Amino acid sequence: MKLPGYYSSGQFARMANVSVRTIRFYDKQNILKPSYVTPAGARFYTDSDFARLQQILLLKYLGFSLDDIREMTIDDSDYLFLLNSLNLQKKLIQDQIEQMQLVESAIEDTVRVIEQEHQIDWSQMLDLIHLTNMEKSLKSQYQNASNISSRIRLHKEYSTNSKGWFPWIFEHCNLKPNERVLEIGCGNGALWTENLNHIPSNLSILLSDVSDGMLRDARRNLPSGDKRFSFACFDCHSFPSSLSAFDLIIANHVLFYCNDLPKVFKQIQRSLKKGGHFLCSTYGKRHMIEISELVQEFDSRIVLSAEKLYEQFGLENGEALLKPYFSDVQCIRYEDSIELDRAEPLIEYILSCHGNQNQMLLERYHEFRSFVEKKPPMDFTLQKTPEFFYVLFKKTLEGDLTSSFIIVLSETTRQKSNITLPLLRKEIFT
C-alpha cells in the first residue's frame, strides 16, 4: 500500500539508518507515534515524523534517557517548539565541546607532569575527575534552560503589553553613566539582551548566577568582547567579599528561591554603596491559579509546583519580610494581557513547570491535548501577582545612613483564548 506523502515503517527506518525494530520500540514507548495507522495495523510516517526522529536520535547520542527524550520532544509537532528545542540542543553541544576541551587540556597537563617529573600530581588528577563529572550536570542545565525558555515564550510572544517585561524593568533601573550594577540570578541575560541599545556605554555590569550553564548562555547571548559585562558564579546567600559599592543590585524573580532571606538581605546591604538601589520581583498565591484549575480538572493529582514559592517571598508577605531592612514601601503594577489562539503554547508552559505534571501527562499527552482543545471559546484570565514596592532602605554602618529603594514587580494578566477554564468566574476580577 502506497500513501502520498507517507512512508512505511521500513522506508522510514531506512531513511534514518535505523532498524524497523527501533521504530517499533519508539512507538511502543510513546516517544514517536506513526502519523497514520491502517485498519490492518500498518504504520505510516511523514516528514514531520522524520524531523522528530532526528531529534530523538540526537538526544540519545547526547546521553539522554528515553524518559528524558519523551519529555523533551513531546510537543515537537509545534514548529516553534521544535525550533526552540533545536537551538537549545545546539547550546548543549557547545557546552559539551567546551567541556571536552577542558578535559583534553587537563589530560595534556597531567601527561606533561608525569613525563617531566615521573610522578603523578594528584591535585591535577582530582581536577580532571571534577571536570569529567561536570558533564553529568549538562542534562539538568539543558532541561532548566528549556523550561525557562518555554515560560518566557508564553509571555513574550503572546503578551499584549507593547512595553514588555524586561524593557519595563530596565526603565525602572534608571541607569546612570559610570554606575556599577550587579544582577543576582541573571539567567540567560535577557534583561540586558533585550535592552542592549539603551545601556550606557560606560556602565559596569556584573552578571551572577548559581548555575554555570546559565552564565554560559548569558555570555553567548551578549556581544563578545563587550567590556561593560563581567560574569561570576556564586550563591546569593554568600557574596564574594570583594563585591561592594554597587549603585544598583537586581534580583528578578530570585528571592523566593532563597532559604535564608535575612542573610541575603544583609549581603545586599553590605554590597550597596551609600545612595544605592535594590530592585527585586516576586508574585502572589493566585499566580497562574487558573492553569492549576485546568490541569486538576483533567487529573486532580497534578500539582504544577511542589513548592509554594510565594510563601517564601511573595506578594502577600514581601512587605513584611522587607521592612526589617527597608521602609517606605510603595506598590506599582505592571498591567499586561496575553491572547492565545492555540493550545500548544499553554500546554508547553504546563509541561515546563516544577511539579509532577509530567509524570501524569506524558503517557496521556494526546488525551490531555484533546481535552484542552475541546474547551469552547471564551475569554479567561491568568493572574500573575507581582507588585512594585518602592522602599527607602536604611543601613547603619559606622554611623553612615545609606538609602536605597526596592522594587517588587507585579502584573495581572488577562488572556483571550479558545480555551475555557470552567472554574473561572469573571466576577473575581471586578
Report on the architecture of this protein:
Residues 388-430 have low confidence and may be disordered. α1 packs across α2 (20-28), α5 (79-117) packs antiparallel against α6 and α5 runs antiparallel to α7. The strands form five sheets. This protein has a five-stranded parallel β-sheet with strand order 6-5-4-7-8. It is 43% helix and 17% strand. The chain folds into three domains: 7-66, Multidrug-efflux Transporter Regulator, Chain: A, Domain 2 (Orthogonal Bundle); 79-150; 159-429, Vaccinia Virus protein VP39 (Rossmann fold). The chain has 430 residues and is an alpha/beta fold. α11 (261-271) links the parallel β7 and β8 (272-280). The chain is globular and about 75 Å long. The chain is built from 17 helices and 15 strands.
Per the CATH scheme, the topology name of the largest domain is Rossmann fold
- The side-by-side strand order for the widest beta sheet comes to 6-5-4-7-8
- Per CATH, the architecture of the largest domain is 3-Layer(aba) Sandwich
What is the residue-averaged pLDDT? 76
Question: Given this structure, which CATH class of the largest domain is correct?
Answer: Alpha Beta
Share of helix, binned = 40-55%
Q: What is the overall silhouette?
A: globular
- Rg is 25 Å
Question: How many angstroms does the end-to-end distance come to?
Answer: 60 Å
Tell me how many strands there are.
Answer: 15
The helix-and-strand class reads alpha/beta
Strand content: 15-25%
CATH homologous superfamily identity of the largest domain: Vaccinia Virus protein VP39
Please tell me the total number of domains: 3
